[in-house]
Each structure stands twice: as structure tokens, then as C-alpha cells.
Amino acid sequence: MTQPRQHSPSSKPEPDLKREKRSDLSTLAIATAREVFDLLRDDLVAIEQELGRDAASGVSTITEIAEYLREGGGKRIRPSLLLLAAHMLGYSGPSSIRLGAVVEMVHTATLVHDDIIDGADTRRGRPSANTTWGNEKCVLAGDWLYMQAFRVALEEKNLRVLDLLIGLTQQMVEGELLQIQKLGKAVSEAEYYDLIFRKTACLFSVSMQLGAVLAGATEAQILSVGAYGRTVGLAFQIVDDVLDLTATEEVLGKPVASDLREGKATLAVIHSLDHGTAADRQIIQRVLDDRSFENVSRQQIQEILMRNGSVTYAMGVAERYAEQSRRALKPMPESDFKRALLWVPDFVVARDK
After folding, report:
1. Would you call 122 helix, strand, or coil by DSSP?
2. Handedness of CA 49, 55, 57, 61 (dihedral sign)
3. 90-104: pLDDT as tens digits
């Protein structure tokens, strides 16, 4: 995987002009995000209806958990990417609705399992499903969602679709296992990029590729949109990890710095471990070892990250991945859907939750 060029840390405060530019970008990204979702409104409504049908089981507990998760909302960015890729390459039809629901079910299943593994109490500002139904029922509901996703995908009778989904699932499971192995450890940047590819960017990439496959795209086109999805997904996860460290609990819908408390070293933390003082490293490692903020405060961690320019560094990496994603679409035909895809990276980088 090509990794962004390293930059030395800076302790200088961000200039006012840059803050104003980012604020303008945030406003523009929100406006264009609305345009993107307006472009896909009918398809996204159809996907919600499909999800409602697909979540129904003869076992009431599964239906209750699946419906609770669906009602939790979310950005629906993965099905949106699939739809945009399909439309950009000339396909519009029921298969994109079915597969849009499939990628959202796969995503939802991973969230259920993640919350169980992490012992999370909240998700998107609500109690996580496992706090209501318990770990045993939720892990089985997550398994059911995975299998339901494959059952719906099987309706396509397309081996390429199944091959992409099987490879995706293997990557995601491997990513979760690798992350568990590295909990509490100071991982390298290369290891971090590999982890977030497996856990997040792979699903973005496959969503794009599925849309292209439905459109009967060439292998070169499938590779191009896959590269777009990979780099947008990497930018998305890096921003997610930065927000975990810098946003408020009210905005996040979960406790701030949850990743660090769970023993996960994300990009800004890795940067401060690499470029901070021995005292900085000791403080960060204490949180990773304790899996709590009993001996070190969240504010101390935030001060270390800001002093070492680590948040700025991580956001710079996300912005470079966003730019790579736009370049990946150069060979694609011009259309409103391509323009929408070119706007998505700005939305990903500028979002606040």
C-alpha cells in the first residue's frame, strides 16, 4: 500500500487563515453532501425499505436487534458510494438497491461485533445493542446479519460479487484479530494503515467495485474505483480517529478518547509516540497499559497531541489520501455522479462526527 509522505511535526499554532479556510471547506462540504444525497434520494429510500425487509426473521430477538440497529441511522456512505459508482458507469436498477443493502448489513454486523469486543456502552448517542440484549444474543444477531447479507447477494447469481464479498469479510475479520493482538502496543504507521484498510477502507473499496461490476465495467475501471474507495476509506478512518481524540462526547455520541482507553494507538497518538518527549511517551503508554484514564487525564493526552502537532499531522495525511482518491477518478467519464464522488472526500475530511 502506498503511504503518505512523512512530515516533521510542528508545534506552531495553526494560522487563523487556515482555520477560516477549513471552516469554509466544512460549510461547502455540508452543502455539497446535501446535493449528493438529493441525487440519490430515491435509491436511498429504496435501500432503507430493502433493509427493513431483510432485517425480518422468524426469531423475534433477531428482528428486534436488527431493527434497533437500522433505526440508529448512520451516514449510509457505503451504499451511497456503491450507487454513485454504478450510476457513473451507466447502471441503474434493482441490483444496486439489493447490494446497497448488503454492504450496509455487512457494516452493521461489524459494528455489533466491534461493540461486543470493545465493551462499548453507547453507539451513535444511544445505548449499544449489547447493553440491552447482552453479548450472547448480539454476537449471534451479528452473525445472522452477515449470513443474511450473503443470502441477499446470492440473488445476483454473480460469482464476482460473491468473490468480492468473501474477500472483504476475510479482510475485516483479519483486521479485527490483528487489532486485538496489538492492543496496548505502540504500532508503527505502516501497521496502522494496514489495520484501517482491513477494518474500514476495504469495505469502501468493495462498495465501489460492486457498483462497477453491476455496470459491466472494464477491469481497469474496477481497479480505478476500487482505488478511490480505498483512499476515501483511509481518509474517513483517520478523521474518525482524530475526532475520537478531539470532539466532545455530545457530538460523538460516545466517550471521548475511547480508542486510547481501549488500548488502540491511532495515527495522532503514533505521531506523538514517535516525535514527543520521553515523558510524553511514558504518559501515553500509561493509558495504553491501564486501559483507563485513572492515572492520566484526557486533557493531558490532548495537550501532548496538540504540542507535538500530531492532530495537524493526522489531518494532513487524511487530506492527502482525499486528494489521491480524486486523482483515481480521472479516467472516469464526466457526469453528475462523478462530480458527486469528487465532492465526497471534502465531506469526509470536513465532517465533525
Report:
1. strand
2. negative
3. 999 999 999 999 999
Look at residues 117, 84, 122 and name the one whose alpha carbon lies nearest to residue 103: 84
Mean pLDDT value of segment 342-353: 88
Provide the residue type at 154 as one letter.
L
Query: How distant, in Å, are the alpha carbons of 27, 100, 208, 211, 243 from that of 253?
Result: 22, 25, 28, 31, 11
Indicate the domain borders of the chain.
28-232+328-346
DSSP three-state, residue 326: helix
Q: Which of 214, 284, 270, 209 is closest to 238 using CA atoms?
A: 270
Confidence of residue 24 (pLDDT cuts 50, 70, 90): very low
Residue 6 clears pLDDT 50, i.e. is over it: no
CATH number at 28-232+328-346: 1.10.600.10
CB distance 116 to 176 below 8 Å = no
C-alpha 304/C-alpha 264 separation (Å) is 17
68: amino acid identity, one letter: Y
Phi, psi at 122, each rounded to 5°: -130, 155
Of 351, 319, 121, 120, whose CA–CA distance to 246 is shortest? 351
pTM over 0.85: yes
Q: Is 81 a residue whose pLDDT tops 70?
A: yes
Residue 86: HSE in the Cβ half-sphere, 13 Å Cα cutoff: 24
